[in-house]
Amino acid sequence: MTKLPGAYMRAEIDQAIPAFAEGVLQDLSASVKAATLDKLDAFYTIARGSSDAAANLISYELMAELQKPVTTLPPSVFSLGNGLQLGNAGALIFSQSGGSKDLISAAIGFKNAGGKTLAITNTPGSPLAAEADAFVDIKAGLEQAVPATKTVICTIAAGMALLAALKPDYAKACEAAAKAMLASADAKLEQADQIIEAVKSTPHVYVIGRGCGFGAAHEMALKLKETTAIHAEAYSAAEVLHGPLQLATKPLCVLILDTGEEVSNQSLSLAEERFRSVGANVFRLTPETVGAQGLTPAASSAMLLRALYPVILEIALQLGLDPDQPETLSKVTVTI
Where would you find the membrane-spanning parts of this chain (predicted)? Predict the structure, then answer.
């Protein structure tokens, strides 16, 4: 039987809902203990591609809840460079396959420098998981489409579960997120048709966020490039009003991912106002848009991505593309 274009991606978007609900409620206290994460003063995230977008998203939630610094570290510091002097820090290394050589080198280098390492992966028996002090299974299961969707949603769930292990009071937020995600199974984004037409008719797309929404913006821009071959870039609402605003003098579609953080509202509103004033086609997606009221920013981001993935899928199909297998990409990208 011939597979229809996008069949894998469509199924995996649906599978992400129960998988998120399961993953966000898992008990990761043993992993925290094994890597002594509760004793650390700071964290670095190390990742590539969609995993890096999810790591960026989770880092904001960790900082907000733990009041500890969390920032990204390029794997090349270890795979191509001479490493770092580390204090009492831990590395959260995100990888769907757990097989990229640069991430494995980062785990080894980080440990050799005295840091603690946690692998967050969809492949528990992977080389990365074997090198880390402990690992977390994101529990996404098989993902066959080249563009990651289910694994991204499940990585966010695993990050939230990790936070609950570090801060037990956060478990209530995980429970609320699981319920909201399950309740969204039949929901459709009201603006879907308008977004589809706007993106199809525009050569360039900006995806704007702030805080956790900035990580979600990176993921959405990457997914647009992967599946539709449309040029898309992610920006923080704090940065986009500098040089990038000038591109709005030419046809431009802008997606604003609003996670409901009160502290970000003013900057997102200013970006929306400025882009509208110069004629850009602007869509602002909020927690209310996707039934995510009252959730934490990370959970709202997961809900926004879950709602937008079918939109991206439909754009690709209408452009005559098969999003399951973009012609220049493969499921596992090996970097060095």
Answer: none
